């Protein structure tokens, strides 16, 4: 069973569900996010009673921007996406946490949904929201990229971050409840195709290392078939073709990344032999 996050003044024992008006801490992890952070912080000011930035020792203007927007700024060594986000929760002043990445922002519809929740009180232990991604200046609505529902607002006494790095997800305890909020979480992902390729290279390296640590071995057939299945699923079955050239590009890079992940895993095992 997941271990509950511990807040200042709280014990690790899971608290009983209580519904009523709530105060929310917005929690954001950063590393050199001066180009994104101001937009993110401006979008959450109206809904967050507390904003905390957990930073992995940025060398740009991230700290300055955080403090200009009234956020608390804490630095912590990065040991993995899951580990960093779980530690970040412990820095929140309030049990209810809105978790954002620096390249995300709350749109007006989602903002109003959260304000209604704060006014009327929550009716669930966690809330999902649709994420809409901007890719090279275009909003992507197909190919599996939308609605892309994410659990991002929750009572942190009822769960913790889990999954496999770099693909983290928040996992509520058994017996908890979830609901869905209207509005979109806007994700400003990649400004160029080069950004996408660079990020895919970075993430596939982390994924391969995690798979290797679990003892997974890459089957040669899987390494060949999985990229093809990924492309067809994204571009054809999930309608990526409807997003034009960007839809094709996303499907193509996603397929390549699937191959890179298994190829890197194969290389790790060969280096160990």
Question: Can you tell me about this structure?
Answer:
By secondary structure, the chain is an alpha/beta fold. It is built from seven helices and eleven strands. Strands 1, 2, 3, 4, 5, 6, 7, 8 and 11 form a nine-stranded mixed beta sheet that branches. Strands 9-10 form a two-stranded antiparallel ribbon. It starts with 23 loop residues before the first strand and ends with a helix. 35% of the residues are buried.
Attribute tags:
273 residues, Spore Coat Polysaccharide Biosynthesis Protein SpsA, Chain A, 2 domains, alpha/beta, nine-stranded mixed beta sheet, 11 strands, 38% helix
Question: Concise description?
Answer:
The chain has 273 residues and is an alpha/beta fold. It contains seven helices and eleven strands. It folds into two domains: 167 residues, Spore Coat Polysaccharide Biosynthesis Protein SpsA, Chain A (Alpha-Beta Complex); 80 residues, no CATH class.
What is this structure's SSE topology?
Layout: E1 24-30, H1 37-44, E2 50-55, H2 62-68, E3 72-75, H3 81-89, E4 96-101, E5 104-106, H4 108-120, E6 126-135, E7 138-140, E8 150-155, E9 159-164, E10 167-172, E11 178-190, H5 193-213, H6 220-237, H7 244-272
Parallel strand pairs: 1-2, 1-4, 2-3, 6-11
Antiparallel strand pairs: 4-8, 5-11, 6-7, 6-8, 9-10
Helix pairs in contact: 5-7, 6-7
């Amino acid at each position: 069973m997941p271990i509950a996050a511990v807040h200042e003044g709280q014990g690790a024992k899971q608290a009983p569900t209580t519904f009523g008006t709530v105060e929310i801490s917005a929690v954001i992890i950063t590393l050199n996010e001066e180009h994104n952070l101001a937009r993110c912080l401006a979008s959450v000011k109206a809904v967050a009673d507390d904003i905390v930035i957990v930073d992995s020792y940025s060398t740009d203007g991230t700290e300055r921007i955080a403090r200009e927007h009234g956020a608390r700024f804490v630095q912590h060594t990065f040991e993995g996406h899951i580990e960093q986000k779980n530690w970040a929760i412990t820095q929140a002043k309030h049990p209810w946490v809105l978790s954002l990445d620096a390249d995300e922002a709350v749109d007006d519809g989602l903002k109003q949904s959260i304000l209604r929740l704060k006014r009327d009180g929550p009716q669930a232990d966690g809330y999902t929201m649709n994420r809409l991604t901007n890719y090279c200046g275009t909003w992507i609505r197909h190919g599996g990229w939308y609605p892309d529902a994410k659990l991002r607002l929750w009572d942190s006494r009822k769960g913790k971050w889990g999954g496999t790095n770099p693909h983290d997800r928040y996992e509520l305890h058994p017996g908890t409840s979830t609901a869905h909020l209207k509005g979109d979480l806007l994700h400003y992902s990649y400004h160029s195709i080069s950004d996408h390729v660079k990020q895919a290279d970075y993430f596939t390296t982390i994924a391969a290392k995690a798979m290797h640590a679990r003892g997974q071995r890459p089957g040669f057939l899987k390494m060949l078939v999985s990229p093809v299945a990924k492309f067809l699923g994204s571009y054809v079955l999930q309608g990526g073709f409807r997003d034009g050239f960007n839809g094709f590009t996303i499907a193509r890079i996603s397929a390549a990344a699937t191959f890179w992940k298994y190829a890197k895993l194969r290389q790790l095992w060969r280096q160990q032999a």
